[in-house]
Amino acid sequence: MSNIRFVIPLFIVAAIAITALLVTKAPKQNQDTPRFTVRTAKISNELPIRRVKISGTTQSSETTVLRFQVGGRVTQKTARLGDTIRKGDLVAKLYNPELKPITVSAKDNLARLSAQADQAKRDFKRVDSLYQQKAVTLAEWEQVRTALNASQNAESAAKSELERATQVASELNLSAPFSGSVTDIMIDVGDVVAAGAPAIRLSNSNRVELKLALSDKLVEQITLGQTVRVTRALDPTKIPVQGIVTEISPYRERGSLPEVIINLDAAQIGPGIAVNASIEVQAKQGLSVPTRAVIMTGENTVAVYRVVNGIATLVPIRPLRLDSESVLIEQGLNPGDALVVEGISQLYDGAEVSEARGIIEPTIEPTIEPTIKSDIDAGIELDTATSTSELTQ
């Protein structure tokens, strides 16, 4: 009986201790669950637009290499590198000893045939008058008329030959076909050049363009007349220049890429400047997620916090492409979903949140000084926590 008397109080004490432990350790859901203030952004229904930045160098849209159409020796060179010349100005001159005699011979031949044609005209006029008077036969009249036609044809051929010789002789003078700047000179006085050899490169600085080689997939998303933002690569602080896509060329050679030509305002930017072109293209599929909403979890997965009915849920995503302000994803979210973009650092999966209207003040957690405990205290605390969880379950 004495043993039973001692056992019953022990059970009562144990029950009281367990009840007290449950009361003090049970979570107070309504009072202890925090509500975090965040700011969200909704996913748009429109297809995402990304900016592709490509580097290049501006050039004159009107550039040509002047060439002599005849061969000879360079006797004069008036153009210098960097000179600005006008249309029709003489830039170089050749000497060819064979062209002058050809021109003189063509002139003499034309004079001789012109005299023969004049004589044939007078003969035909006299015979035609006699034929009207029935003084000559029809055969004689036709013979004189045939001689007149032959002399006139010979005179026309001599005129054409003289024009050709004169035109060839004029090719000894190389003139500018348009106004521009001399960007390269391949000849010098005294050089003997062949017909068709390059002499001088001329560029029109009043017309500037940017030529870019792009992939076929990117070219398919660019349209004629589309505006392109162009900035200077070495001086990005200057005001950007707006360009317009004027040409989209297909493949030119095997293995080469398509080219896009962008017309630029020559008053704002000149040729020979390194630039960065920012082209906006619209994706065919996917959703655009703000970069501020994307985080990296402890499991090395990319995710975002989606807010539904005041609860922030961690949703893993699969990024396809990263732009400066957005991330293109393929699946995992829907248009209209609200994503947390501010206040992410304090969240966890399933946290209660509320939408902020003003500026979100950063939450400063109190600094907890580390407490050094003995092995006995640590063991007791571990046992208590274990027994509490077991009892709670």
Description:
Helices cover 30% and strands 33% of the residues. By secondary structure, the chain is an alpha+beta fold. Among the domains are: 52-62 and 203-282, Efflux pump adaptor protein, beta barrel domain (Elongation Factor Tu (Ef-tu), domain 3, Beta Barrel); 65-96 and 172-202, OB fold (Dihydrolipoamide Acetyltransferase, E2P) (Beta Barrel); 97-168, Orthogonal Bundle (Helix Hairpins), CATH 1.10.287. The strands form five sheets. A six-stranded antiparallel β-barrel has the order 2-11-14-13-12-15. The protein has a five-stranded mixed beta barrel with strand order 1-22-18-19-23. A hairpin with a 5-residue loop joins strand 17 (295-296) and strand 18 (302-308). The protein is elongated and about 135 Å long. Residues 1-31 and 358-393 have low confidence and may be disordered.
Instruction: Please tell me the overall pLDDT.
Output: 78
Strand content: 25-35%
What value does the Rg take, in angstroms? 46 Å
What's the count of strands? Answer: 23
Q: Strands of the largest sheet, in order across it?
A: 2-11-14-13-12-15
CATH topology title of the domain at 52-62 and 203-282: Elongation Factor Tu (Ef-tu), domain 3
Quaternary organisation of the protein chains = single chain
What are its keywords?
single chain, about 400 residues, alpha+beta, Elongation Factor Tu (Ef-tu), domain 3, OB fold (Dihydrolipoamide Acetyltransferase, E2P), Helix Hairpins, 6-stranded antiparallel beta barrel, 5-stranded mixed barrel, 6 helices, about 30% helix, elongated, disordered N terminus
